[in-house]
Specification:
mainly alpha, Arc Repressor Mutant, subunit A, three-stranded antiparallel β-sheet, 4 helices
Length: about 90
């Protein structure tokens, strides 16, 4: 058996894919705090595809709940989900 053996190549490919998946999970892991996940301005603006300035306008106008902790703005993921659910309109022409 050498490094060019199909079995070795297959195992190496599988290990590379596993390593890639683990790196992705580590890079995107958001720990829970008291059972709740929090998003930063950057996270939420990317998720909603809006600018951080627009998020600031939403906060200023009382349109979005947030937490100010040591000059850091955080958003509860569950609050954002509720807002999305409340903004949902069903299709009426089916």
């Amino acid at each position: 058996m050498d490094n060019k053996d199909d079995r070795i190549l297959s195992i190496n490919k599988g290990l590379e894919q596993t390593l890639k998946a683990v790196r992705y999970m580590l890079d995107n892991y958001k720990p829970l705090f008291n059972g709740e996940r929090y998003l930063t301005d950057k996270d939420l603006s990317q998720k909603l595809n809006i600018s951080r300035r627009t998020l600031q306008d939403y906060r200023t106008n009382g349109m979005i709940p947030y937490i100010m902790l040591c000059k850091k703005v955080l958003y509860k993921e569950s609050d954002i989900q509720k807002m999305r659910d409340n903004a949902y309109y069903k299709a009426w022409a089916e």
